[in-house]
Amino acid sequence: MAQGHNALIIEEDRLIIQIDLRSSKIQLDSILKIAGIREANTDNIIKGDFGFFKNEGWVFEAKQDNIVKFNRPLIVLSNNSQRTPYLVTTQIPDINGKSKKSPLVNYGINKFAKITVYELASGLTRFILPGYERSKRVFLSGNFNNWSTLKGLMKKADGGWLLDVKLEAGACEYKFITDGRWTTDPDNLIQTNDGAGNVNSVYYKYNYTFKLSGYSLAHKITVAGEFNNWNTDELSLGKKDNIWQLQMYLSEGKHLYCFMVDDQRITDPLNPHKENNIGGNLSSVLNIGEMVTFKLDGYSSAKNVTISGNFNNWDENTLQMQRVANRWILPETFPAGNYSYRFIVDGISMVDPQNPFTLFEKGEFKSFLALKPTHYFILKGFSSAKKVTIHGSFNNWEPHGYTMARKGDDWIIGFNLKPGKYLYKFIVDDRWILDPGNKFWEQNEFNTGNSVLWIE
């Protein structure tokens, strides 16, 4: 990683960036990119202005002639780490041998002996493996690259190896492969059982920060909610810039929570959304995910309109829609996924008349909604068809299938599908057909074939 006197060095408890002020702008840009510092102005560096280093967590160490050094500690200094458990047990089944799903967890906080995985200003996540200087090749493998043994080649630096990757918010399972040998991250204290007797390291990419202003005399502030079973002694906030705060990962969906200030329960003063939890305690409400606004036009004489679906266990009473002019409205936030629902108008259940997508389930038709679809099925060339449905392994070949919507001359429907293999066919006006736009198919027991879709 050295270029002239420019170098990024991995030591036991810190990273060191060494810069030669006589370097060209191209050389400076190169070492700053390697160090993960994107916002730096090379002209300011040459002039001796190093303020941006402090903004990104680097500490001035020394300057000798034209050589300047900064270090970034890898030791965890805060007490805001998740106390227990450090071993997360989850079942992560293989999907047709292609990949493994991320563990479905409600929340997560990282705990490292040394901070060897962290976020860069670029939005990428940096993984560092100190040592292993005699290794010829080191790979980073995890659920983010389908546990590939060919991708994720790490770059060798003075004192270790590093690699920057793009991650989605959530739990990232990973291991290092050093000269063909798999190993967990020695500095990561959170591990998970992969369901096959192996242990992987887990890193949580955060997506939310709890903040509480004031309370300067408080000794301890924690946050608790449905996500951690209202454990008021687990998630401690730390004080930064006179604001109590805690970064963490929270799963998509609706979360009720509160703060505990020296054992006194309070709601979030900056969050106007509140409701009682199961125990009857007033709690703040946080919604993470996709906002959906359900709308039902007309029914101006109705007294009570609700919505029920697989997102609330088909409870017909809790999700009350509000009347606005000549329309009933309800905004809700859900995680990515596939949903079915019906409206309840004064006790009478009905599908959404404005939603063309339906499915047949438990003896009745229901409206269908896909949030953050990972694949769209598009059927071209049947513009004169009256009805098109899709059937497959994703709904156990249910005879009614999913009703597709006409868009121009095409028929379309989207699904949020997990990685894996799927078989499917269309029914066009009562006639089964393969997908003419998909060249991949395999024979079935009826010798009529099924189209094949792989989701990576």
Q: Care to describe what's here?
A:
The chain has 456 residues and is mainly beta. It folds into 5 domains: 7-73, no CATH class; 87-205, Immunoglobulins (Immunoglobulin-like); 208-288, Immunoglobulins (Immunoglobulin-like); 289-369, Immunoglobulin-like, CATH 2.60.40.10; 373-456, Immunoglobulin-like, CATH 2.60.40.10. The strands form 10 sheets. Strands 5, 11, 14, 15, 16 and 17 form a 6-stranded mixed beta sheet that branches. Strands 19, 20, 23, 24, 25 and 26 form a 6-stranded antiparallel beta sheet that branches. Strands 36, 37, 40, 41, 42 and 43 form a 6-stranded antiparallel beta sheet that branches. A hairpin with a 2-residue loop joins β12 (155-157) and β13 (160-165). The protein is globular and about 80 Å long. Mean pLDDT is 86; it is low at 76-101.
